[in-house]
Amino acid sequence: MHVCSKIKNHIGDALTSVQNNMSTIDNGQDDQLLTQMIQYHGTSQGNATRALISLYASDALHLRQKDAVAAATIVETLHTASLIHDDIQDKESQRRGKPSLWQQFGEGPALCAGDFYLSKAYSHCADISQPDKIQQLIQLVHQSVATTISGQTSDITSTDIRTTSQDYETIAIHKSGPLLGLALRIPLLLAGYDDAKAQAWMKQCVEPFALSYQIVDDLFDAQLDAEQGTLNIVNLLMRDMSSQEANAYAKSRVELLLTQARANLELVPNQAGIYVDYCIDQLQQKMHQVSI
Question: Which of 55, 120, 262, 270 has its CA 20 to 30 A from that of 34?
Answer without folding.
Answer: 55
